[in-house]
Amino acid sequence: MSHRLYPKKETPLDYPIDPLIEKRWSPVAFSSEPIEPEKINSLFEAMRWAPSSGNGQPWRVIYATQDEQENFDRLASLLDEGNGYAKRTYLLLLTCALPRFEDKDRENPYWQHDTGLGTQNLILQAVAMNLIAHPMAGFNKERAHELLGIPVDVEPMVMIAVGYPGDGEALTDERWVKKQQQPRQRKPVTDFAFRGKWNSKVKSQI
Ligand SMILES: Cc1cc2nc3c(=O)[nH]c(=O)nc-3n(C[C@H](O)[C@H](O)[C@H](O)COP(=O)(O)O)c2cc1C
């Protein structure tokens, strides 16, 4: 099967970084082409090997492909209207996080942090396989509990659209076209990496 190349977006680097990190961005133009099952397994395998506090592995994932329409539509129905571009993709995921350690009777202070580490592993693995992956907080968490049977003490975190790159022409909403085309922007390194101690020229939030 011929797949479109990973879409290139200009990344204005100040210093060199690994090409995989440079390549990743959050496109919105997805194809509905199937993803090979072994690639889907590799996404989860990459997540599996993320570091986590006390090796607590607080991440969980609910996923569906367009091959199981009912499951896919249930997940897709949670998306905010503004994230409707994701309904075109082949694979939708919802990451969830466990606030407590499973084997210790206490809260895991790093539950969200570590779920984010697992999520980034999954996203970078997608990019390494020429799949695009777009994380989205814009979905209905309450309905996610109801529709997907997520226990009350487990927190839905982000939905992620994963798929082969698609044709930008199929983007039906002006907002999505803008998202696909907008230039990448970041703060300079000196705004967040401080040598020795806090840089008092950089304001805190109080
Ligand atoms: C936790 C989280 C929530 C996000 N929520 C949304 C979302 O609801 N809709 C969307 O289009 N993008 C969403 N994004 C993507 C960000 O807008 C994007 O990562 C950011 O603008 C940087 O762009 P880049 O990923 O292309 O480098 C989210 C990203 C993260 C990490």
From TrEMBL:
Designated name of the protein: Nitroreductase domain-containing protein
Coiled-coil boundaries: none
An annotated Gene Ontology molecular function: oxidoreductase activity
Keyword Cell inner membrane: no
Keyword terms of this UniProt record: Oxidoreductase
Transmembrane segments: none
Lineage of source species: Bacteria, Candidatus Buchananiibacteriota
Alphabetized Gene3D superfamilies for the sequence: NADH Oxidase (3.40.109.10)
Location of the Nitroreductase domain: 21-80, 100-164
Assigned protein family: Belongs to the nitroreductase family.
Oxidoreductase keyword on record: yes
